[in-house]
Design goal:
The protein is mainly α. The chain contains 22 helices and no strands.
C-alpha cells in the first residue's frame, strides 16, 4: 500500500527540515554522509522523502546538526503515522473481509469461503500512512485504484525513471573509490531493494531489459564491496546474481564487466587459477569490443599470474591491459568501479610486480600510482603503500618496512582498516622470517589490525 497524502507529506517535510539544518551547518550531502554512517545517496533520498531510515539515522543527524531534538520529534511523528496506518489498514481489511464473506478472520489460518479485499490487496508491512477517511469503503476503493494505477504506469519505464537508475549505478561506482565498504553496502542494499520493487512492477519489455542491466551492474558493485569486506561466501552469491542478470540482458559488455569483478573476488580469495580462468573468459566475451571489463580482466589476470609465479604470462597480461586502456572510450576512463583509468592500472601493475619480487619496477609503479590517486581514495592508496612495505621487507629492510606499514594503517579508522586491508597487512607479517615476527615494530603493526574473517581458500 502506498503512502497517504498525509504521511507522504510528513516524510517530505522531515526531509526538507533535514536539508535546512544541513545547509545551516555548512555541510554538503557528501560531507554529512560519513558523519551519520550512511552514504551520500541515502542523504539525498531522505531529503526528498524517497527513503525510510531508522531512528539511529535521525539521532546522529540531530546530534551532528545540533537540531536540539527537532529532527527526532519529526521522526517520532512519522513513526506514529506509520503505526496508525498499519493498525487502521489491518482493521479495514478485517471489516472488508467480513462484509464480503460474512466470515470474520480467524486467529489462525484463513477462511476458504469467498474472496475478499484482503485476498486481492494484502497489507504491505513497509507501507505507511492511512487517513481516517480511507476507512470508508469508497475511499478504500479509490486508494486501491491509485495503487493499481501506480503499478500499471509507474514502471512502464519512463525515460526519466530509467535514466535515474542508470545514474545511480554511476554514483555508486564513483563512491566505491572513497567510501568505506560498510557504508556502500548499506546504500547498495537500499537501492537494490527499491530496484527489486521497480522490476516486479515493470510492464515494458525494453524497460525490463534496462532495469535488468542495472541489476547486473549494482550486483557487480555489491560483489566488489563484499570483496573489500573480505566476505567471500557472500561475494560468490552476489556474483551468481550479477552473472544471471547479465546473461538475461544478453549484453557481452555488461557480462564481461561482471566476470572481471568475479575474477577480482577469486584473486582476493587466493583462488589464483580460477581467477585466471574467469578473467580470460571476461576478455573472450567482448574480445571484439575494447571495454572496461576486458581491460580490468587483463589486469587481474596479470596479478593472478604473478601470484602463481608466472613472470612471462604476467607481463603479457599487463601489456594487454595497458594497450586496452589506451583504446578505451574517453567516457570509460574515469575514477570509478564502472570505469578504468591509469591510476587503477598502475595499482594493478605495481601489485603484480611486487608479487614477482621485481622491486625496482614495482617501486616505480607505486610512485606513479600514488601520484595519480587522490587522497580520498584511501583503500587503493593503502594497498599500494603496503605493497611498498612488502618490497622493502623483501630487500631486507624490515624495520623501515614495518614503520612504513604502521604509519599507513595508523592514519585509518578501524572501519577503514577492516577487510582486505587488515588481511593484506597480516600477509605482510606472515611473509617475514619467523625470527623477525617478534620484533617490536612488527608487534606495533599487529596492534592496529582489526578482526576479519579470511575467505575460504580454494
Amino acid at each position: 500500500m502506498v503512502d497517504s497524502d498525509v504521511t507522504a507529506e510528513a516524510r517530505r517535510a522531515l526531509g526538507h527540515q533535514l536539508a535546512e539544518y544541513r545547509r545551516a551547518a555548512g555541510h554538503t550531502q557528501a560531507a554529512l554522509a560519513p558523519l551519520t554512517g550512511y552514504g551520500r545517496s541515502t542523504i539525498a533520498n531522505v531529503e526528498v522523502g524517497r527513503q525510510n531510515v531508522p531512528r539511529s539515522f535521525w539521532e546522529r543527524c540531530d546530534a551532528t546538526l545540533e537540531a536540539r531534538g527537532a529532527l527526532l520529534r519529526g521522526y517520532e511523528t512519522l513513526a506514529t503515522l506509520t503505526r496508525q496506518h498499519h493498525e487502521a489498514a489491518a482493521h479495514l481489511l478485517e471489516v472488508q473481509r467480513t462484509r464480503n464473506t460474512g466470515v470474520a478472520r480467524q486467529p489462525t489460518g484463513r477462511s476458504n469461503i469467498g474472496v475478499g479485499v484482503g485476498d486481492l490487496y494484502p497489507p504491505n508491512p513497509h507501507g505507511t500512512g492511512l487517513t481516517p477517511e480511507a476507512l470508508d469503503p469508497l475511499a478504500a476503493a479509490e486508494s486501491l485504484r491509485r495503487d493499481l494505477d501506480d503499478a500499471i504506469t509507474c514502471y512502464v519505464g519512463t525515460e526519466a525513471s530509467l535514466d535515474d537508475w542508470e545514474q545511480a549505478v554511476r554514483r555508486h561506482g564513483r563512491a566505491s573509490r572513497d567510501q568505506p565498504p560498510s557504508v556502500l553496502l548499506t546504500d547498495l542494499t537500499s537501492d537494490l531493494t527499491d530496484l527489486r520493487h521497480a522490476l516486479t512492477r515493470c510492464r515494458s519489455t525494453s524497460a525490463v531489459r534496462r532495469l535488468t542491466r542495472v541489476v547486473a551492474q549494482m550486483s557487480g558493485l555489491m560483489c566488489l564491496t563484499l570483496i573489500k569486506l573480505n566476505e567471500h561466501a557472500a561475494f560468490r552469491r552476489w556474483a551468481r546474481t550479477a552473472r544471471v542478470a547479465a546473461v538475461e540482458v544478453g549484453d557481452p559488455v555488461t557480462l564481461s564487466w561482471v566476470r572481471a569483478h568475479e575474477a577480482h573476488g577469486h584473486y582476493y580469495a587466493g583462488q589464483f587459477t580460477e581467477a585466471v580462468r574467469v578473467a580470460r573468459h571476461a576478455q573472450d566475451l567482448a574480445s571484439h569490443n575494447t571495454c572496461v571489463g576486458v581491460v580490468l580482466a587483463a589486469a587481474l589476470e596479470a596479478r593472478a599470474h604473478a601470484a602463481l609465479g608466472r613472470d612471462e604470462d604476467t607481463r603479457m597480461a599487463l601489456h594487454h591491459a595497458e594497450t586496452g586502456l589506451s583504446r578505451l572510450d574517453p567516457h570509460s576512463v574515469v575514477a570509478s568501479a564502472c570505469g578504468y583509468d591509469e591510476a587503477q592500472f598502475r595499482f594493478h601493475e605495481e601489485n603484480a610486480l611486487t608479487r614477482l619480487h621485481d622491486t625496482t619496477s614495482a617501486l616505480a609503479a607505486q610512485e606513479r600510482a600514488l601520484d595519480l590517486y587522490p587522497a580520498s581514495d584511501y583503500l587503493d592508496r593503502t594497498l599500494v603503500r603496503l605493497d611498498r612495505a612488502t618490497c622493502l621487507a623483501h630487500d631486507g629492510d624490515t624495520k623501515t618496512a614495518m614503520s612504513h606499514a604502521t604509519h599507513t594503517l595508523a592514519n585509518l579508522t578501524d572501519e577503514q582498516r577492516r577487510g582486505i586491508i587488515t588481511l593484506r597487512a597480516r600477509d605482510l607479517v606472515h611473509s617475514l622470517p619467523s625470527a623477525e615476527r617478534a620484533l617490536p615494530a612488527v608487534r606495533e603493526l599487529g596492534d592496529l589490525l582489526v578482526p576479519t574473517t579470511r575467505p575460504q581458500e580454494g
